[in-house]
Amino acid sequence: MKRTGKPVFFIVAILLIALTITAFTGFASYYGDTKNTYIKGSEDIRWGIDISGGVEAIFSPDVDTDITKSMMDAAKEIIETRLVNKNITDYEVFADYTNHQVIVRFPWSSEEEDFNPQAAVAELGETALLTFCEGEDNEKVILTGSEHVKSATAGVDEKGNYIVSLDLTGSGKTAFAEATTRLVGQTISIWLDDALISAPTVNEAINDGKAMISGNFDAKSANELADKINAGSLPFALSVDDSKLNVVSPTLGAEALDIMTLAGGIAFILICITIILKYRLCGVVASISLIGQIGLMIACISGYFPGTDSFTLTIPGIAGIILSIGMGVDANVITSERIKDEFRKGKTIDGAIAAGYSEGWNAIFDGNITIVIIAFILMGAFGSADSILAQAYNKIMPFFSSTITGSVYSFGYSLLIGIIANFIMGVWCSKLMTKSISRFKIFRNPWLYGGTKENV
């Protein structure tokens, strides 16, 4: 068996506990009333409408005639996509075909303090008509978002510079090829209604329908431009009637969340006590790995890691976390039982630990990989249509059309990150800690791992 150093147990345990503490507390500084957040914590999680309440807004087209049902459906789908792309996965979007309105309900931002409906709706950004125009004014239109632009994606080029990539439709490819051939060295400006959002210079003719906008972008500004282009690809411009803005009350509320958190904490403590009593030292290791698993899940939801945004956590999302914690407990129980079985076969401490983790891996993998597949399907079937998972889902299952349903997507996301955290914490970190602590003379008692005095 490959030896694991004695300090590994303490290093891993300290890192997992530190991750969990900082994932919950975050780290920020204040300069007067200005808050500078360096590490996002649980306070930065965006809670769903069912927990925190939210806003109801009514979007109306800027034209009164020639609006078809398919146009309203397109507007509804694009608004849903924009919400999911901003990690707002708990929402309700309805298309009123009679009155030509799109009714949107979504939760408050985690940073909201004044609970101002107008400010909340502004978070969705401009929902205007997108046009690409010759020169730096919007008089001569080359392309329109609804007809010619499939999608915009922020990324980096081969030199590591941030860019925005455009994917055009067939007619957009033709129109853009003609325009860029004619306007080499000149400007093609991009407009949302009457607002100029970018004015790149044409470096060369683009004939393949794949355009790239470069400039002095950072990650944030590139994503913002891509979001604005995607949001502007509507069949008409939309506006919000401020007089019809409403505040949506939560179905549960903050008090219910506090009760759920307290109940969850008590249940977790009871689980840890139970597995420690039953599996002794393996139970201690399992408890530490479960703490790390919870910390990693919170970190993935809160936007803890640089470049990530807070994810909307709903009641279904919380259910996904609870289920994945149960899978984490199950993984540690399987391994602990296998170690006990190996002791019954007469193996030594080192042999039983090595064989226990090796034999337990197959059962853990089989049980968890099934959940991973389900989570991928849920995220592909009910997430943003331009996501990688959705595209893969549509290729594998073209006979089942995907749709955006944020609450189901939230469940799939929390379930997926929980299972990944289980593989990292419940399998890999637990194995490292168990192998490491078993090297200390004081812990060379087989009874601590489920064996007897005969197992030396």
Describe what this molecule looks like in 3D.
With 456 residues, the chain is an alpha+beta fold. It contains 13 helices and 16 strands. Strands 4, 5, 6, 14 and 15 form a five-stranded antiparallel sheet that branches. The chain starts with 6 loop residues before the first helix and ends in a 19-residue tail after the last helix.
Helix tally? 13
Helical content, roughly? 40-55%
Name the helix and strand elements from N-terminus to C-terminus, one letter apiece.
HEEEHEHEEHEEHEEHEEEHEEHHEHHHH
| N- and C-termini, Cα separation | 15 Å
What is the general shape? elongated
Number of β-strand runs: 16
Uncertain spans: none
Strand content: 15-25%
Mean pLDDT: 84
- Rounded to an integer in angstroms, the radius of gyration calculated over CA atoms is 27 Å
Structural class category: alpha+beta
Q: Main sheet?
A: 5 strands, antiparallel
Condensed summary:
The protein has 13 helices and 16 strands. The protein has helices at 7-25, 49-52, 69-85, 117-122, 145-148, 170-182, 219-231, 254-279, 281-302, 315-344, 349-382, 388-396, 406-437, and strands at residues 27-31, 34-39, 46-47, 54-61, 92-96, 101-107, 130-134, 141-144, 149-156, 162-168, 188-192, 195-198, 210-214, 238-240, 246-248, 312-313. Strands 4, 5, 6, 14 and 15 form a 5-stranded antiparallel β-sheet that branches. A 4-stranded antiparallel β-sheet has the order 8-7-11-12. A 3-stranded antiparallel β-sheet has the order 9-10-13.
